Amino acid sequence: MVSSDLKNEKTLVRVKDVVFGGRKVVVIAGPCAVESREQVVAAARGVRRAGAVMLRGGAFKTRTSPYSFQGLGEEGLRLLKEASEETGLAAVTEVLDKDSLELALEYVDMLQIGARNMQNSSLLRMVGCSGKPVLLKRGFSATVEEWLMAAEYIVAAGNHNVVLCERGIRTFESATRNTLDLGIVPLVQELSHLPVIVDPSHATGKRCLVAPMSRAAVAAGADGLLLEVHPEPEQALCDGFQSLSTDDFGCLMPELQAIAGIV
Ligand code: PEP
Ligand code: MN
User: For residue 224, what are the domain limits?
Assistant: First the structure.
């Protein structure tokens, strides 16, 4: 069960040498999408230098338009793995279906279920059976209860290594891409023993809001952050407007350290 037990013990989710739910705030950073070897290696080196402990990078993208860049597929996974091995950063990537899941199992250390697939119960069961740690994004119209039930599908299939990720929800407000629902971080930590991290990139959709909301998430007690970082955000094929440059990310890390004590 994902709900807290009486002893209130937190689940520690281990991804190689990274531990979610412990004392350290886990910072995952990298591009929205893997675009080329140069891009993902530069991103990985930059985020590693600044202190990130995991690398993100999409190879199978769920874009709103079918005409937008859809990711490099298996080639993207290969390049992500190369960057991950070169820097020693564990890698996470989103899977969309059985085929992308089977491929990703060979290349990455953690599987991401995106907001659009949060209630795809057959995909949840499949990642549950995969044995790999899972990063489960909150659906953009999901209640906390629905989100925790989605996690329950993964746990019920035998996989207890689930990290929850708040990434903003749809509200009437259109000034930001989504509305970051930060209050649910301590709430979900009360309701569940699973670690909870925050994605301020998709939650805000605006580069200038990413650092303030990252600081706020850490101050609220989030167990980690998932951040989009690109070596050249202006040239990004996907979500450049909400991506930090590696330099911006380098400035943010000491600020997080100052708030959390340990990052
Ligand atoms: C992502 O993190 O690459 C992504 C697509 O996010 P979300 O599923 O939260 O929209
Ligand atoms: Mn993105």
Answer: 13-260
Structure tokens at 180: 């970051």
Identify whether 3 is part of a domain. Answer: no
Find out whether the beta carbon of 28 lies less than 6 Å from any atom of ligand 1: no
Q: How many domains does the chain have?
A: 1
CATH of the domain at 159: 3.20.20.70
Atom number, ligand 1, closest to the C-alpha of residue 168: 9
Q: How far is the CA of 202 from the centre of ligand 2 (A)?
A: 6
pTM of the predicted model as reported, rounded to 2 decimal places: 0.97
Which ligand is the nearest neighbour of the Cα of 242? 2
Q: What is the DSSP letter of 3?
A: B
Q: Is the ipTM of this structure higher than 0.90?
A: yes
What does the pLDDT look like over 28-58, one tens digit per residue?
Answer: 999 999 999 999 999 999 999 999 999 999 9
Residue at 26 is within a domain = yes
Closest ligand 1 atom to residue 226 Cα is 2
Give CA–CA dist 147/117, Å, rounded. Answer: 11
Residue 174: Cβ-neighbour burial (10 angstroms; 0-12, 13-18, 19+):
exposed
Nearest residue CA, atom 9 of ligand 1? 115
Residue 4: inside a domain, yes or no?
no
